[in-house]
């Protein structure tokens, strides 16, 4: 039966006729499209063209479409968060709450977001000048390396969506009276519209997103309005940046091909606003530019990448997986260093040295990323290790094996040393002696800070008085490092007001070379050479606002320059007790002082199991000093990249507050709260009494440290040691190791494993493992800890414990002993 009544008026009849016509057009379109595809295939066969020419575009098109869908989803989520209010963001992201929820000293920032929303339209004008005058010339120079020219911005609109501030922390302790320091969690996912031309092609950037911790320093404080002389704005570490290419440039927005342009954009942001680079803004004419723009490093971090071991095998061989060709890239702020590549090994030895000037030790992190070099494809990741700079500055010197993150297996051996700055010439002799002992020619003994104020009376083009003014740029070279100033267009008296920092190998013999180049004609229009030994004769090792004559230039050409030399000196551990507000960046782990280990061979085995369990434990790898292995491993390996919006207190003390030695090697801190119940199928065990050495279980006990880092969104687990493993046969001593799983996801992704300690019933590991997870996930997660022995091929289980993470206060590190129990029936079935 027809349920549709016949049309009753002319309007409805016309509508149905249009619908019928549209269906016919759509049918013809599909027919033409399919016929076109068949015609292309036919022509390829007719002209004997290789199928690869047809297959390659199809594969690239599919990959580009899938990659674009994933990126578009992330952008839409970020944009929705930027448009939402604070309540909606919290309700939508219960597992990733802002820092002010957990830390009382981190303030809510909705009042700042309302201010940004009000002033955002005016920011467009400032950003336009900044992009055109600073970023565009730098991008042009970078693209010339790839034989691409003609780059220029055409339209620059930041859109209507302002950035969001997730939280603000203002410091009032250990801060100079002449400045105010605040850290802000900045997130921008706006609707910007930026267009550009490149080699005659038009393109654009949309959906630009940036997320990072930004620091604002207000200095100096003055007694007249506006009370603050200026601002220094910078990112402590490289922010996360993403954007979408549109127009003709959309062809480049594919995996591999767009990396070049994205890398250039990230580099320019780093060169402008990531430490050691700062964006200075002068607010009062009474303040000298030099106060904000003169470099002020706090010291130098000397890094020695010694070696790595047990790296993942990425290369494929005839017999399966072979080895790797590892190298390491070290990143701190905007500075990067790369080690040499060691071929065909998973245990590389680099012996690589590098140094980083540190301008803000609070909040910065050293990241060591390991890669497998591959000539035919993109290099594979082997993991990364992150070290908090503040922890090293407090301890002074650290020698540590660090477990790699984002890797199934692997450790890297780093040695770090914090060198402070001295203005005493007498300290130079000691610094030179130390570098000679290291026998490393790349090491520095001093730091040179240079401030180029201006240049006067440069010669005009052609050397004639009536010629066109030059486009001068200053180049500074010391050793192998060269720094370039901004380009000042069409002027013979350019004002730069820029600061630069150099590491000096030997100030007694080194020379700084300065050149002024006319970028328009690429000719040198002035130069000078300054021997640093001249600074050694100054009382404070400084040269303040000194006009120096330029050679090969005009008769009156001078450069106004200031220089400051500081000698590197090791001053040992910091006397700071870690109780100040700037200690929020580390991650506290309360470690237990391990008893000293004998350096000689192991004592003969006793005849009874009781005697065996009381003997000191011997670790397989004795190259690391026992007195540092526990405190450093439980501190540095877990003290890594930290969010600035964190709580004062439990985040630093493992570096400078090592527990006092105790007579009882089994002494631990207070046990965590007991658990009333556990989920079905899981046998949760309570930590044993801390004051008791003996275990209430006949399977022994294991000592663990559990802590959650809110800043880094990581669960940190440290396996310290095992005590009183049963010995049924004195002639068959176990070879124990510990295996971890994060339940309920018992998979390879959550599996962690310690090293095996041979012939020991009381093994010591002190190994740190991490799980990336949000704090909301802790409520339904359990940690399964299993002790096994490798005496047989099957590796039988010697004991097990399952810890319910929801019942522990993981915002503070908890070290305790847990009684081992028999493996559950459910685990045996699996």
UniProtKB/TrEMBL annotation:
Pro residues bias (residue ranges): 595-607
Residue ranges constituting the C2 domain according to the UniProt record: 275-402, 424-556, 698-818
Any single Pfam family the record assigns to this protein: SMP_LBD
InterPro entries documented for this protein: C2_dom (IPR000008), C2_domain_sf (IPR035892), C2C_KIAA1228 (IPR037752), Ext_Synaptotagmin_C2B (IPR037749), Extended_Synaptotagmin (IPR051634), SMP_LBD (IPR031468), Synaptotagmin_SMP (IPR039010)
Bias type Basic and acidic residues, positions: 619-630, 649-661
Organism domain of life: Eukaryota
Compartments in which it is found: Membrane
Chain segments annotated as transmembrane: 39-63
Keyword vocabulary terms for this entry: Calcium, Lipid transport, Lipid-binding, Membrane, Metal-binding, Repeat, Transmembrane, Transmembrane helix, Transport
Family matches, as PANTHER family: EXTENDED SYNAPTOTAGMIN-LIKE PROTEIN 2, ISOFORM C
Protein name: Extended synaptotagmin-2
């Amino acid at each position: 039966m027809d349920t549709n009544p016949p049309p009753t008026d002319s309007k409805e009849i016309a509508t149905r006729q249009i619908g019928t016509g549209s269906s016919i057009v759509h049918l013809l379109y599909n027919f033409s499209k399919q016929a076109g595809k068949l015609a292309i295939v036919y022509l390829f066969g007719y002209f004997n063209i290789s199928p690869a020419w047809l297959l390659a575009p199809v594969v690239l098109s599919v990959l580009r479409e899938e990659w674009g869908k994933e990126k578009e989803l992330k952008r839409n989520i970020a944009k929705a968060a930027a448009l939402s209010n604070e309540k909606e963001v919290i309700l939508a992201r219960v597992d990733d709450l802002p820092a002010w929820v957990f830390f009382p000293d981190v303030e809510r920032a909705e009042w700042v977001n309302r201010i940004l929303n009000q002033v955002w339209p005016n920011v467009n004008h400032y950003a336009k000048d900044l992009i055109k005058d600073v970023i565009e010339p730098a991008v042009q120079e970078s693209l010339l390396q790839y034989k691409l020219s003609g780059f220029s911005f055409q339209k620059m609109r930041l859109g209507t969506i302002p950035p969001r501030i997730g939280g603000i922390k203002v410091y009032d302790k250990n801060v100079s009276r002449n400045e105010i320091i605040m850290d802000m969690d900045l997130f921008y996912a706006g609707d910007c519209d930026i267009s550009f031309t490149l080699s005659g092609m038009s393109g654009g950037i949309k959906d630009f997103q940036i997320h990072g911790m930004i620091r604002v320093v207000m200095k100096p404080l003055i007694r007249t309005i506006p009370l603050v002389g200026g601002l220094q704005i910078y990112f402590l570490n490289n922010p996360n940046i993403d954007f979408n290419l549109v127009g003709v440039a959309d062809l480049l927005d594919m995996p591999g091909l767009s990396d070049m342009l994205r890398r250039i954009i990230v580099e320019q942001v780093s060169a402008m606003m990531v430490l050691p680079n700062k964006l200075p803004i002068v607010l009062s004419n009474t303040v000298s530019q030099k106060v904000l723009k003169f470099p002020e490093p706090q010291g130098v971090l000397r890094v020695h990448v010694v070696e790595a071991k047990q790296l993942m095998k990425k290369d494929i061989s005839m017999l399966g997986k072979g080895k790797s060709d590892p190298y390491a890239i070290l990143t701190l702020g905007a500075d990067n260093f790369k080690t040499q590549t060691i071929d065909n090994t998973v245990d590389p030895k680099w012996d690589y040295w590098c140094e980083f000037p540190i301008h803000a030790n609070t909040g910065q992190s050293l990241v060591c990323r390991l890669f497998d070099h591959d000539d035919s494809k993109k290099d594979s990741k082997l993991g990364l290790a992150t070290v908090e700079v503040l922890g090293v500055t407090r301890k002074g010197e650290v020698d540590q094996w660090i477990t790699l993150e984002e890797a199934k297996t692997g450790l890297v051996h780093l040695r770090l040393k914090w060198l402070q700055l001295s203005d005493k010439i007498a300290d130079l002799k000691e610094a030179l002696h130390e570098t000679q002992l290291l026998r490393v020619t790349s090491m520095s003994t001093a730091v040179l800070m240079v401030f180029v104020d201006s240049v006067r009376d440069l010669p005009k083009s052609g050397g004639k008085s009536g010629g066109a003014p030059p486009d001068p740029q200053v180049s500074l070279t010391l050793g192998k490092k060269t720094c370039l100033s901004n380009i000042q267009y069409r002027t013979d008296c350019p004002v730069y007001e820029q600061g630069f920092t150099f590491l000096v190998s030997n100030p007694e013999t080194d020379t700084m070379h300065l050149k002024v180049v006319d970028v328009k004609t690429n000719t040198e229009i002035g130069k000078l050479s300054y021997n640093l030994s001249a600074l050694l004769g100054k009382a404070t090792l400084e040269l303040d606002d000194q006009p120096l004559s330029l050679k090969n230039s005009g008769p009156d050409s001078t450069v106004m320059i200031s220089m400051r030399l500081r000698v590197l000196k090791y001053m040992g551990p910091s006397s700071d007790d870690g109780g100040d507000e700037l200690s929020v960046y580390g991650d506290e782990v309360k470690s237990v002082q391990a008893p000293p280990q004998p350096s000689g061979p192991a004592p003969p085995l006793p005849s009874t199991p009781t005697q065996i369990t009381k003997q000191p434990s011997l670790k397989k790898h004795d190259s690391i000093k026992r007195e540092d292995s526990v405190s450093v491993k439980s501190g540095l390996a877990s003290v890594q990249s930290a969010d600035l919006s964190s709580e004062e207190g439990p985040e630093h003390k493992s570096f400078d507050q090592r527990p006092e030695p105790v007579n009882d090697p089994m002494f631990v801190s207070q046990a965590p709260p007991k658990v009333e119940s556990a989920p079905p199928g899981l046998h949760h065990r309570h930590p044993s009494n801390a004051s008791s050495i003996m275990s209430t279980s006949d399977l022994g006990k294991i000592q663990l440290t559990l802590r959650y880092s809110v800043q880094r969104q990581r669960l940190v687990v440290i396996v310290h040691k095992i005590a009183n493993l049963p010995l049924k046969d004195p002639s068959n001593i176990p070879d124990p190791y510990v295996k971890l799983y994060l339940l309920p996801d018992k998979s390879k992704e959550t599996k962690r494993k310690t090293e095996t300690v041979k012939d020991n019933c009381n093994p010591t590991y002190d190994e740190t493992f991490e799980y990336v997870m949000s704090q909301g996930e802790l409520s339904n997660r359990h940690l399964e800890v299993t002790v096994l022995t490798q005496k047989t091929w099957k590796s039988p289980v010697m004991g097990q414990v399952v810890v319910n993470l929801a019942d522990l206060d993981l915002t503070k590190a908890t070290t305790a002993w847990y009684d081992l129990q028999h493996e559950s029936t459910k685990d045996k079935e699996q």
